[in-house]
Amino acid sequence: MTMWLKQSTAVTVKVGPFVDSTDGVTAETALTISQADIRLSKNGGNIAQSNNAAGATHDELGYYDIPLDTTDTNTLGTLKLLVSESGALPVWQDFMVVPANVWDSLFGADKLQVHADEITAGLITATAIDTDAITAAKIAADAIGASELAADAVAEIQSGLATAAALATVDGIVDNILVDTAEIGAAGAGLTAVPWNTAWDAEVQSEVTDALNAYDPPTKAELDSELAALNDPTAAAIADAVWEEAIVDHSGTAGSTAEALDGATAPSAADVADAVWDEAIAGHLGAGSTGEALNAAGGAGDPWVTALPGSYTGSQAGKILADVLADTNELQTDDVPGLIAALNDLDAAGVRTAVGLASANLDTQLGDLPTAAENADAVWDEAKAGHVAAGSFGEEVQAHALSSEVSALNDLSAAEVNAEVVDVIRTDVIPDSVPADGSRPTVAQALLMIARFLMEKGVSGTTVTVNKEDGATSSMTFTLDDATNPTSITRAS
Description:
The chain is α+β, with helices and mostly antiparallel strands and 493 residues long. The chain has helices spanning 100-107, 153-159, 164-184, 201-214, 220-230, 235-244, 257-263, 269-278, 290-299, 317-333, 336-342, 348-355, 362-367, 372-381, 393-399, 403-408, 414-426, 443-455, and strands at 3-6, 11-15, 38-42, 48-49, 57-60, 63-68, 77-83, 91-98, 457-460, 463-467, 474-480, 489-491. Among the domains are: 3-107, Immunoglobulin-like (Sandwich); 369-399, no CATH class; 443-491, no CATH class.
């Protein structure tokens, strides 16, 4: 039989009977039904464990109380509860989860909510209502009377209507408006002879004053100054104005300079260069000019025609060029090939001597070099005494010599060593420390973990909790792959 549940409401349901899986009759009254054993399917969805963490509690005759929380009952529609526990036959129960209003209207004091907006558009129309369906004859006498209406129903209706006094006030206002509009006339004909009202004078004057104050005309002094500036332009100012004037405004007059400039084309760079170099020097001999310098050089004649050094002496260019020429002539007359040939008379022994090789065979000399192992031996066999300068590595090694400390450890007898070992095994207490999940333990940590696992642990569903020696404080947790028939265990924390 399907039971009804109120949506999103915590409830405890009674499920059973759980009977023995062998004889199918004997009630099972000591089953351990945990959260993981209580399975739910919401409105045909996939089966999953209940959200409520608590397990089931036996009532009697094999019936168990199973708590469901608001998450377990949050989905409208069918809800199937299933329990399959080892040693008992499977048990299930079907529920129907309904809205709170439906539940309360059926099993409580609430009323089922039926709203007008549940009626589809167009369901009640004039054509849907039969002719004469609602008439005076159809309504019983006194069906709508004072006793059938609320005490203030009439007052509420009248408050939304215009009273006689309010209508009279509106009528007076409308009459006044009609009088005023009659004076204006059609298309404003009555406004053509409106007399000036002296009460307007102050307002007009105020507006004019505001306009004049907003305008900032130039004073007489400012005008005189600006006009004086226009009447006294300098020649430079006029020239600038002429040259900066746009030609386009003055190129329409035949024979004007603007027309000529507008149609003129600039000479090419080659034309300009030709004109410069072809220009006679005679017209360009101003003091300090290039023409003056060229004219003076030309008047002295061509200095390079005269044989060098001529009359040049000291650091003058002619004297320097003459000296260079003399040196190059000497190179031409000297026996340069013979000098070069003299450099080629070194034999093999001379070359080896020049580069510092004592043997004729390079391989032999390289073979005489010490090996890496020989160098290492030499370094480690070197006496420290010669290498203890301040800041050196030898000084640092000397300062941290450990020979005396090491030798001090070698005087323990076998009995002393044995006593220390026995003390560790029989007396010392293993520190309360276990490694984090995924980390390798020390020997002491491993022994502590094994001892606690063997002595203090509890199992709930698929969770194994290992406690400390006090039996209450959690030390580690493990997870089983199955609550009934586990085949593996994995550390969780």
